[in-house]
Design a protein that fits this description.
Blueprint: E1 23-24, E2 34-39, E3 46-57, E4 66-75, E5 87-90, H1 98-105, H2 110-115, E6 118-121, H3 139-142, H4 147-160, H5 170-184, E7 189-194, H6 196-207, E8 212-218, H7 231-248, H8 250-255, H9 259-272, E9 275-280, E10 287-292, H10 294-304, H11 308-311, H12 314-322, H13 328-344, H14 347-358, H15 369-373, H16 380-391, E11 411-416, H17 424-430, E12 437-442, H18 455-465, E13 485-487, E14 490-491
Length: 493
């Protein structure tokens, strides 16, 4: 599961300085912050902050062993006397750094930052907290390399990792969060979490309930859910909903008649004979060779479904490739998506989480092979994940990790009405255990709501009051999904 995509042009931030070394030293629970600037290679500008590293044992049962530096950035409040509780931002993936996410979405948090500090903790294994990465293929290629080749790649990946993958799980990450909170001196904190980060937030609340003042969970992952088996099903549901919306729109239906049939024919076409293309690189313009087969086409469609704006391009891209015989635009989208994933997701950390926390529960999901075969992603993604996890070392998972959360912490749950990975039904699943929670569903939206419409204002009001009572959400009635593109330069009226 990946983090959300920014509306329009996506800018994923990379930090200018990167610390990946694991040291051998004694652990001190002190944190010294110095002035720094968080910067991005893919977006202009930079952000002033106070940065430092908190030394944490990689293996908590061996405090004299390897020590990893957990990177912390504090973006100071604009008020001279900020609120006592900072907002800790928890990112998705698993594998995305909180600092990367925040640099892309900082305008959405501007109102909250007026009154309180923003704290960015790069979860162990991400960003500048000993990024646990290797050359393992990203998702589309992961499903197409073949089982034996994938097994070899996994072995090579494990040899390259700069840390022991057994110690990069959510259960240890929440201990790091608590250590950071204590080191910074906050008595209580507020939380914003997106996607996989909502799992981290729920477990932190479970383990340290008295330390959380309020929490926003955006794109909820229930603790009881094993990530993986339902990915293809939820992606299929979101695509079918987009096709249905196109059919109900007169202009879209006229421009792209029988869109579901066109898509199925296109999938059959690339399965039998993949497109082998030379296209201008989307960033450099240099001629670039790309193969668009079933796996790459499926991966592109799935990730384009994450945002309503990119989903609005799908009918045009599918029609161009399947009817007009021009798959170049779809291939270019694939290249951009692949690069974003490579920049953002630390594959080693990703599988350390999934293989330890989810794989042991996959057999309980109730999702059949035949159900996966009826989706455009098919069963190949799960087969690839099972191959990886069969070799991946499993790490520490708290006994209560998968229990439904029961809490009286004030919470605001945000869902997109057409989210292809964390549908609104997931947030509904956790509501019974939350005595002070409110669930908002944004019509036609995809994955991640914090930057949509009036949500930044609602989020700031909720965090300020630590309550959803009296929160006027009528502004959400004006939220609409982006109009479908009828040509490369024009959308439907």
């Amino acid at each position: 599961m990946e983090g959300p995509r920014v509306r329009g042009q996506v800018h994923f931030a990379l930090l200018a300085l990167f610390c990946s070394a694991i040291c051998t030293a004694s652990v001190h629970e002190t944190l010294t912050l110095e002035d720094c600037r968080l910067q991005s290679e893919s977006a202009p500008g930079s952000l002033a902050a106070r940065c430092g590293h908190l030394a944490r044992p990689e293996n908590p049962d061996d405090p004299r062993g390897k020590v990893l530096p957990v990177h912390v950035a504090v973006v100071p409040a604009l008020r001279l006397e900020p609120a006592e509780d900072a907002l800790f931002v928890l990112s998705g993936g698993p594998g995305q750094a909180a600092s990367d996410f925040y640099l892309a979405y900082s305008p959405a948090f501007a109102r909250i930052r007026r009154d309180r500090d923003i704290v960015l903790v790069d979860q162990r294994g991400t960003g500048r907290s000993n990024r646990l990465d290797c050359t393992l293929p990203e998702e589309p290629e992961l499903t197409s390399v073949g089982r034996e080749t994938l097994q070899q790649l996994v072995r090579k990946c494990l040899e390259q990792l700069p840390g022991d993958p057994r110690f990069y799980t959510t259960s240890l990450a929440v201990r790091d969060l608590e250590a950071v909170r204590a080191a910074l001196g906050y008595e209580r904190i507020s939380l914003y979490a997106i996607s996989y980060g909502t799992r981290v937030a729920q477990h932190y609340i479970r383990q340290y309930p008295d330390r959380v003042r309020a929490a926003i969970l955006d794109g909820v992952v229930p603790a009881t859910l094993a990530l993986g088996p339902r990915i293809a099903i939820e992606a299929q549901n979101a695509l079918e909903a987009a096709f249905e919306r196109c059919e109900k729109n007169e202009s879209c239906a006229r421009s792209y008649p029988r869109l579901p049939e066109t898509f199925r024919s296109l999938m059959t076409r690339v399965s039998d004979e993949p497109f082998r293309l030379s296209i201008p690189d989307p960033l450099t313009g240099e001629p670039t060779s790309v193969t668009l087969d079933r796996e790459r086409l499926s991966g592109a469609v799935r990730l384009l479904s994450y945002s309503d704006e990119t989903a609005s391009m799908l009918p045009l891209l599918i029609h161009e490739a399947g009817v007009s015989g021009r798959p170049q635009s779809l291939a270019a989208q694939y290249l951009m998506i692949r690069r974003e994933a490579e920049r953002q997701i630390a594959q080693g950390m990703h599988f350390s989480v999934v293989c330890s926390e989810d794989a042991p529960r996959w057999s309980e999901s109730g999702v059949s092979e035949s159900a996966l075969e009826r989706t455009y992603l098919g069963p190949e993604l799960m087969a690839a994940m099972q191959t990886v996890c069969a070799q991946w070392p499993r790490g520490a998972v708290d006994e209560n990790f998968a229990e439904p959360l029961r809490s009286d912490v004030p919470m605001l749950l945000l869902s997109g009405g057409n989210d292809p990975v964390t549908p609104a039904a997931y947030a509904q699943q956790i509501l019974p255990g939350l005595s002070r929670a409110k669930h908002l569903i944004l019509r036609g939206q995809g994955h991640g709501q914090i930057a949509i419409g009036c949500v930044p204002r609602l989020a700031a009001e909720f965090i300020s009051a630590a309550s959803s009572e009296g929160l006027d959400t009528s502004c959400l009635e004006s939220v609409r999904p982006a109009a479908f593109m009828l040509s490369p330069v024009a959308s439907a009226p």
